[in-house]
Amino acid sequence: MRELTYIARRAVEWREVPDPKVRSAQEAIVAPVAATSCDVDSSILAGHGFIEPPFALGHECVARVTDVGDAVTTVTPGDLVVVPWAINCGTCDNCRGGLTAHCSAVPHMAMYGAPIGGDWGGLFSDLVRVPYADAMLVPLPVGLDPVAMSSASDNWSLSWRLVAPHLEARPGARVLVVARGSIGLYVCDIARALGASDVLYVDPDPEHRKLAESYGARTAEAIDPIPHGFDLAVEATGRVDQLALAVKSLAPEGVCESAGNHFRPGELPLLDMYLTGVNLRIARDNVRAHIPDALDLALSGTVAPERVVSHVIDWEQLPDALPERHLKPVFVRDTLSPQVAR
Predict the structure, then answer these.
(1) pLDDT tens sequence across 81-123
(2) Residues 135-161: what's their mean pLDDT?
(3) What torsion, rounded to 10 degrees, do the Cα atoms 68, 71, 74, 79 define?
């Protein structure tokens, strides 16, 4: 089979590797049918990552199950499933506590799409081995478009986690979104659907701002800090100066969720944060615990994640199209039902 391999800045290629096989009764083999790039993949392709190539890329997809081990009970061949980005067993203390990105049954940071915690391959591959099928795979509910939900492996479900619990605790909260990619736009959609009283989206890209406005957000190309302006701030830029802007705009005891991958160092306004009483979380997301709730929200019809999909591209075009600068391209296989392959 082929796996898409990152080889240099703005360069990927197909490489032939052996077909994965079921190695234990707990495993499954899946074939990605709608896969997309995460916001961090854009940084990797731009040469900002911290891991030297080559390595298999991709960690967001909806896939079709092709084979399962004898002990797998939750999925069967032919099922469409969301494949979470982090490898997790579902039974260790961390997994049972919801910390699926910190599974103690595998090396720390085991994941698809980067050789951290071992080499698990990438989801831009013709076939993928899932070592703990019952724990990891989430059946895609009937009625959801695999193309629209291709990011449920990470960015869509992460975006749900960034805002939903806070809006439940603080109904009508004011939300600031400082972003550069799909996460910020998903957050605007989810925040509006869950009752935020005000959403301000900050991004220099006019097309991104137009999308955010379609979700009911106010927008700005750039802002100065707005002291005591927002109950919740979400930063998804990977730039520490923008994280500083977010935390300096919080109301007392406000919360900042940072979803940016900060590959470069920087300084935070710690005294301002202390005087305001800021709650800051910079976290590797335990996405498996949130996928069902995020899918339920998508099923509700109150959100429109499909608007963030910028391009639908044939699977065979991955080596040429992925390095191009697209907001949220989705690559589809010919095995995807024609009813949803748009």
Answers:
(1) 999 999 999 999 999 999 999 999 999 999 999 999 999 999 9
(2) 97
(3) 10
- pLDDT tens for 285-302 read 899 999 999 999 999 999
Digit-coded pLDDT (tens) for 245-258: 999 999 999 999 99
d(CA 205, CA 52): 29
Q: Report the predicted TM-score, pTM, of the whole model to 2 decimal places.
A: 0.94
DSSP sequence for 172-192: T-EEEEEESSHHHHHHHHHHH
**Parallel, antiparallel, or unpaired: how do β-strands 174-179 and 198-202 relate?**
parallel
pLDDT at 265: 87
> Tell me, what's the pLDDT at 26?
98
Contact call for residues 163 and 175 (beta carbons, < 8 A): yes
Structure tokens at 46: 């731009």
**Residue 217's closest CA among 238, 194, 240, 198?**
198
Task: Report the DSSP pairing between strands 230-236 and 250-258.
Answer: parallel
Do residues 340 and 147 touch, judged by C-beta distance below 8 A?
A: yes
The domains found in the chain, sorted by start residue, are: 2-154+286-332 (3.90.180.10), 155-282 (3.40.50.720)
The three-class DSSP label of residue 103 is coil
Q: Amino acid identity, residue 329?
A: P
Question: Do residues 268 and 244 touch, judged by C-beta distance below 8 A?
Answer: yes
For residues 295 and 305, give the distance between their C-alpha atoms in angstroms, rounded to a whole number: 11
Q: How confident is the model at residue 60 (pLDDT cuts 50, 70, 90)?
A: very high
Decide: 118 and 106 in contact? Cβ < 8 Å: yes
Task: Find out whether 129 and 20 touch, Cβ atoms under 8 Å.
Answer: yes
Is 269:248 a contact under the CB 8 Å cutoff? yes
Single-letter amino acid code for the residue at 150? S
